[in-house]
């Protein structure tokens, strides 16, 4: 019962990673391929086809990498409770520190040093 729930949770995390990666890949592929294609002189259908291919390729690559990364994190966790704990320990004492006003360092004036006569 607990294992099936964890597998469903892990699959959902993989889906989320794939969707985030695909979104990033679409955006990055669109921006960089458009700039490169326009600089290369592509216009019309050739421009659209080139940009679309780069966007789909970027989405597939980034989505795949993030989905695999999320699957590896699920494997590292080992059980559902571990998925809720942060991987890196969080220091709560930093959050409770008081913010002190910024103090400007004292201004250092240049000192003129005379050269000895020869």
Structure report:
The chain is mostly helical. It is 69% helix and 0% strand. It is built from 4 helices and no strands. The protein has helices at 2-40, 44-77, 80-84, 92-95. Helix 1 (2-40) packs antiparallel against helix 2 (44-77). It is flat.
Give the class from helix and strand content and strand pairing: mainly alpha
Percent of sequence in beta strands: under 5%
Q: What is the global morphology?
A: flat
The profile of the biggest β sheet is: none
Straight-line distance between termini: 93 Å
pLDDT < 50 runs, ≥5 residues: none
Order of helices and strands: HHHH
**Total beta strands:** 0
Helix content: 55-70%
Please give the count of helices.
4
Gyration radius from CA atoms, angstroms: 27 Å
Rounded mean pLDDT score: 80
Short recap of the structure:
This protein is mainly α and 118 residues long. Helices cover 69% and strands 0% of the residues.
Write the layout of secondary structure elements.
Elements: H1 2-40, H2 44-77, H3 80-84, H4 92-95
Q: Can you tag this structure with a few keywords?
A:
118 residues; mainly alpha
